[in-house]
Structures are given as structure tokens and as C-alpha cells.
């Protein structure tokens, strides 16, 4: 019997997407070279009793990618495909690396919208340019400003959320979006290992089983909290 197989498109394999992601991941490794130059800002801030998060908020990360790893990106793409995501919200876009993986998933699901949000105007500008260069302007946009304002009117139902902005806002941003989450949606939150103490209340909220979520911390890169929304 003759069998036929069809190669399904994967937008991550389009040359302009693959090459752009390769280049952005390569450049993001330069964060390690830029970090020593931040030491005075970090040391001064810590001496003044500020937390790491407050120092980052003061602008120490303005030129840092702080991006997800390629492994996390491929995982985001697969989750987006698995849940058939048409609407994805991203808190913390930086230069748009994670946005590109999410946009690829939405595009390959047949279209929809990734709504990113970024506080820094210079990062917002570059992210918007990267989205255009990858050919994703029709399925992704980045809102400029504080997520607690910009995401207020995002239309539901939301199929997937990536939390990757400043860590003290994971909980408020989640609460803002929760009424618009569809049953069966997935929330992913990055940096659970680095900010173990600060994110403990958020992880407890997700894992308690009392708030509509089933959740576990995945050991992918810096720890991805993977939460399935069962409904209110
Ligand atoms: C860890 S980086 C995001 C990396 C990005 N998800 C990626 O993988 O390429 C965090 C970003 O969140 C942004 N951010 C932090 N707080 C924010 C807020 N309240 N609203 C919007 N963006 C915020 C920061 O400016 C920073 O660029």
C-alpha cells in the first residue's frame, strides 16, 4: 500500500525567522559581558538597601536582553501549538525574542494575535522591528508602557500567557488577566529558580489547587512554572 506524508509548515524554520532568532540569541549572550559594567549600579543599590528587582527597575537592565533560552522558546512554540492558541499575552517583551516563538505558534495555528508589552521605549522599538523583520506584524504587536495599564483592555478569551517581566508583578498581572483566561489555557512564568524566594507566594498560589490552576515547576533553563487553568 502506498502511503503519502505531508510536511506541515513550521514558521520557526522559515529562513528569516530562524536566522533572526539565531542572531538574537547570539547577541543576548553578550549580556554576560555587559553585566560587569553594571556592578557599580548593583553594588550601590544593594548598599542603599535596594533589592535586585528595584535596581533592575531603576534602569540597570535597559540594554540587557534577559531573554528566554532557545530551549524555552521551542517549548513555548509547542505549548502554543498544543493548546491551539489564537490569543497569547506576554508580560515583558524586551527585544522580542520570546514574542517571535509565540507569534510562530499563532501563525501556524491559522492566525490570531500575540500581545506583548514592554516598559522601555528603546526595547519596544527594537522588538517591533524584529517582529516586522520576521514577517509577523499581522500576528504580533507590542504595547508600550506598564503592563498593568496596557493589558487592562486586552480582549479575551486568552489561550496562553507568558509572564517574564519584573517578578513582583507576576501576581498582579495574572489577576488582571485571569477573568479573560479560557478554560484549558496555559500560563508560563520564567525565572522561578533565580527568584525562588520572591516568587514563592506566586508559585504557592498556582500550586495550591485552590485558585483554578494545576501547576508544576519545570526544570527548563531558569525554571518555568507551567500552569493549566481549569476555570473559576
Ligand atoms: C526578562 S525581560 C523579558 C525577556 C523576553 N520575554 C524575552 O524572552 O526575550 C523583562 C522585560 O520586562 C520589561 N518589564 C518589566 N516590568 C514591566 C512592566 N510593568 N510593564 C511592561 N514591561 C515590563 C522590562 O523592561 C524587561 O525588558
Q: Tags for this entry?
A:
single chain, 232 residues, alpha/beta, seven-stranded mixed sheet, 9 helices, 7 strands, 42% helix, 19% strand, globular, binds S-adenosylmethionine
Could you describe the 3D structure shown?
The protein is 42% helix and 19% strand. With 232 residues, the protein is an alpha/beta fold. The chain has a seven-stranded mixed β-sheet, sandwiched between helices. Helix 2 packs across helix 3 (52-60) and helix 4 (70-82) runs parallel beside helix 5. The termini are far apart. The model has no long low-confidence stretch (mean pLDDT 93). S-adenosylmethionine binds next to helix 5 and strand 2.
Task: Please give the structural blueprint.
Elements: H1 15-28, H2 31-47, H3 52-60, H4 70-82, E1 87-91, H5 97-108, E2 113-118, H6 121-133, E3 140-144, H7 147-150, E4 158-163, H8 170-177, E5 181-189, H9 200-207, E6 213-218, E7 224-229
Helix pairs in contact: 2-3, 4-5
The structure holds S-adenosylmethionine.
The site of S-adenosylmethionine has 21 residues, from α5 and β2.
Amino acid at each position: 500500500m502506498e502511503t503519502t506524508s505531508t510536511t506541515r509548515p513550521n514558521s520557526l524554520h522559515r529562513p528569516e525567522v530562524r536566522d533572526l532568532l539565531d542572531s538574537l540569541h547570539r547577541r543576548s549572550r553578550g549580556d554576560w559581558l555587559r553585566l560587569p559594567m553594571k556592578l557599580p549600579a548593583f553594588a550601590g543599590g544593594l548598599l542603599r538597601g535596594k533589592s535586585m528587582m528595584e535596581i533592575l527597575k531603576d534602569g540597570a537592565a535597559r540594554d540587557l536582553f534577559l531573554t528566554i533560552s532557545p530551549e524555552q522558546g521551542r517549548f513555548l512554540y509547542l505549548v502554543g501549538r498544543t493548546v491551539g492558541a489564537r490569543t497569547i499575552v506576554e508580560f515583558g517583551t524586551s527585544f522580542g525574542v520570546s514574542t517571535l516563538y509565540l507569534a510562530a505558534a499563532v501563525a501556524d495555528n491559522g492566525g490570531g494575535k500575540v500581545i506583548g508589552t514592554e516598559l522601555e521605549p528603546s526595547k519596544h522599538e527594537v522588538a517591533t522591528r524584529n517582529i516586522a523583520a520576521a514577517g509577523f506584524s499581522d500576528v504580533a504587536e507590542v504595547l508600550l508602557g506598564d503592563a498593568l495599564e496596557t493589558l487592562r483592555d486586552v480582549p479575551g478569551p486568552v489561550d496562553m500567557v507568558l509572564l517574564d517581566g519584573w517578578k513582583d508583578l507576576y501576581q498582579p498581572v495574572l489577576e488582571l488577566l485571569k477573568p479573560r483566561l479560557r478554560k484549558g489555557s496555559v500560563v508560563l512564568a520564567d525565572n522561578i529558580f533565580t527568584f525562588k524566594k520572591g516568587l514563592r507566594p506566586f508559585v504557592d498560589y498556582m500550586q495550591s489547587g485552590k485558585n483554578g490552576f494545576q501547576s508544576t515547576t519545570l526544570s527548563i533553563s531558569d525554571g518555568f512554572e507551567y500552569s493549566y487553568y481549569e476555570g473559576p
